[in-house]
Input
Amino acid sequence: MLDVRRLRLLRDLARLGTIAAVAQARAYTPSAVSQQLAALQREAGVPLLEHTGRSVRLTPAATALVHHTEAVLAALEAASATLAAARTGLSGTVRIGAFPSAVPTLLPAALVALGRDHPALDLMVTELDPVDVPDALRDGRLDVALWHDYDVAPVESDPGVDSVRLLDEKVFLAVPAEGWPDRTVAGTREAAWIVGTPGTLCHTVAMRVCQAAGFTARVRHHADDFTAVLALVAAGQGVALVPELAAAHPPADVRLVPLDVHRRTRIAYRRGAAGHPVIAACVAALESSTSAYLVSPPSA
Output
């Protein structure tokens, strides 16, 4: 019988590439990871790893086993969901992830509703960039998350994650109100840009939008909070891209130009967990809070 914990390590190795990275992600020593993978290889009865110098790579059999592992883990999630549905009431810790602009807009009403309807739930919120969501869900650091991508920078589907569509938003070009007669992306060729931290999705999107307009952005400032981004634009420090959720109340000295770019938000959770009553309650609360926000966003 194959050990599920060892199968998780093999899946991690396929995703992360090195034993050292797996050890860091799981808080193990590299030696412990190697020993567990060696034990899995004995259980499998076929070679799973090939050593090339100081690195390892998966054999074709190991790659096939990783695909089966995703199905096994999804089945375990579904089994847990079935058992949870048989219990009375919802309780326990729920770890919710959200990107920064969703925390003050979509999330508060959902948290209030969940706390009111299911007081035995212990709700914990973590703010994080969308690029970190799949790993956090797979590793159990999150149970449910608001996860987004952009049409100009689509995120590849993850075999360990399922999701439901929540919201599509316009993206705006934010420019100072004065001195910008050409309010197009092409017209910012010589402008300074305010973009997210390298490695974040917002940074990638800004770079791609500028590249599509035929130039490379001249980055002056890095900022990940859209309130700070808009304040910098208002101060004449550059131009930026801002999604609709973050653009409800721009400073008076900022003009927002709608672009043919959209941000797409989904509610994500581990594959197989859709039927878990806690996940279903979170999805319903987030859908309701988003609908209410869109109908009547808070005034400035």
Remarks:
- The first strand starts at residue 49 and ends at 52.
